[in-house]
Amino acid sequence: MSAQPQEIFLKDYTPAPYAIIETHLNFDLYEDHTLVTSRLRIERQHTGDLVLNGQHLKLKGVAVDQTILPAESYQVDEEFLTLANLPDQCELTIITEIEPQNNTALEGLYKSGGMFCTQCEAEGFRRITYYLDRPDVMSVFTTRVTADQSKYPILLSNGNAIAEEPLEDGRHAVVWHDPHKKPCYLFALVAGDLKVKESTFTTMSGREVALKIFVEPQNIDKTDYAMGALKRSMTWDEEVYGREYDLDIFMIVAVDDFNMGAMENKGLNIFNSSCVLANPQTATDAAYQRIEAIVAHEYFHNWSGNRVTCRDWFQLSLKEGFTVFRDACFTADMHSETVKRIEDATLMRTIQYAEDAGPLAHQVQPDSFIEISNFYTVTIYEKGAEIVSMIHKLLGKEGFRKGSDLYFDRHDGQAVTINEFVSAMEDANSADLTQFKRWYKQAGTPSVAVSSQYDVDKKQFVLTFKQSMPSTPKQTSEEKLPLHIPVEFALLDAKGNEIEQGMLELTEAEQSFVFDNVEQQPVPSLFRDYTAPVKWQYDYSPEQLAFLMANDKDGFNRWDAAQQLAVIVIERVMSGEDATHAVAETGLLDAYKALFSAQLDDAMLAKMLLLPNEAYIAELQSPVDVQAIYKAREAVKSILVAELEEDLLAVYQARTGMEEYQPESDAMAKRSLKNTALSYLAQSQNPERIKLAEEQFAAANNMTDGMAALSAMVNSQYQQQAKEALDSFYQQWKDEPLVVNQWLSVQSASNQTASIEHIRELLEHPAFDIKNPNKVRSVLGAFAGSATQHFHKPDGSGYELLAEYVAKLDKLNPQIASRLVAPLTKWQRYTPELGEKMIQQLRKLEAENELSKDVFEVVTKALVDCN
Description:
5-stranded mixed β-sheet, globular, 867 residues, Immunoglobulin-like, alpha+beta
């Protein structure tokens, strides 16, 4: 890099010297440039010069109260426009020229295909015009957009459309006004030739809101589900939180080129097309569920993020953690609460815990950053949501609602901090969450060691908990204080009855709880419903885990017991024990057989049948031996397939049929179990079983069944059948980009197909486009995240391939490049031979010329401890 980027610290926060009372924007869109004229009505609120942020802008002129300023009266450089000696109140006019068509970073205003669109969170607005690009500067926006009417008949921005007019030379203009103050990161603009799906929603106060989903013309048949999800979200937010929508119109636009999943811009949500477009032929059940969750998430932001926003980016989890919690509760209410909890815990245990254990570990409320885009992480989002979930558990449903009502009422229209969110929860419930707030400031995953004693004579059972925190960058374990940890629990007797149940609250480093009048030694069920995001350990025997699998009334803990039992078996095989002996001797086989006669719904049984994934097992190993994990897990899986084949076949056959596809919970659960059974059966040594996948692939009337069959073949030993199916699939769907992404991903994620040579072929395939984030994630993201045998090849060629493309992407899209480099940062977790090869690639990236701030921060943090 030409200069080392500067670190920004929370402790240095100061309010802006000026408030921007009104923002008037005029966009003149052309094919080779865009002219942006901003008129800002500003008022001084603190001492200091006005320093406006700006990047990649061509400044055309500056005026104060319509008087043009000479160039010598202000300072401008690559990042700032500085104006001194301004009056306390004035109108500031700034004209800039930008080139959206050349903006590959996909921040600010850019072009996706033939469409203009924006992404301004976190700091993209400074690529549009000079502005106080910070979330605590909130303004009322009025936006006028002009463009060629034949190419861009649809012109959109935030708020309500207040004027439209034809112009000369075939151009036209639309003016939008948003009456609600907002920071510039919530600004949005779209211009294109789009079709619209329209509907209405009547709010609880009787207002009618127009709902519109804009898509490219060929995708208009893929909007019904998103529209239904939007209405369900609006209804749920009214019923559960009492929050009503506040504009006359709510719009969603689907965009192919987008760095994130979606963006909650006020009244004009911009979505990655993969998160909004679906019909049965092109989208899987997983895609439908993701669409519903993301539509809900962005809609819920209208209150938890827009009406009440962040004071600064160190408070990012204020809006994201709270809103992820809200969308998780919504999904649980729409589908299976237990399955949703399992999915959330799996993500935490495999991705967030790994982040906490590496050089990029950070607090949910960080103290500093170099590039804010690097903090859109599972720690901020998902761990932040788990912290909110713990508050919900501690205060109860009614107490949490009282706290959220006070929070929204107290801070409506304000930019606030995490402390103010917690304070509202405290004040509404007369609660003290002082110790609890340590969750926000202490990085790392807590460990809780649990032991028990049973006194037969006293009929007394004692549970003892010892909590500890690991050292993380800038925080040693000795510096960290005990957390306030809720623990939902039950004590089960020999018949599975609950002797005791409730909530324990850990507040000390070591704490014991005594239970009297316990007639027999119980089996404890701990951290039910994944009460807290901790690593906990209790010395269960295999027999006790099988007992919990069969008897625990908490569905999450039934599943977790199955995971723990399977880990015991896999670890035994890794240490050299014969797989057949380990599976039989631990009771794993009998426990799995019992699942087929248990009273489980289809969605739950599908989850219970899945072995722990490699990423979860890796989190329990130090150092991680990738090859040993893979081999042991495959050996255990092979035995289960052989021994359970008839049960799996019966499950599969009972759920086959050609009924019309419905994206509804029960139907999804049925397909989930059927296709889980198929994934096992395709691993069978019986060649007749692969024919089930071939037949399902040929006959499938929906993408869920078609993709499941294709995946089963790709991940089997029958690679000729897989190749033929892949070729056929591509020929059928090559004109559907989102489907082609699935085709790329199923190959890139498979240990059967994702050789380095094949990944390079996919990277050169006409279907791949390095400028499209979805394509990058489908190939390189899937390869590094799932194809462990190839990505972690002993010769380091997988790491070399990833680093090569990180360097290429850094010149185009630094945000995507910095996220892609993350697997290389975990070098300390692996065997020394693999770790050294990761370090080599990190050093090569560090030596790159003109490295972006995004990648620089990740790489330098990863290399801190490698000398």
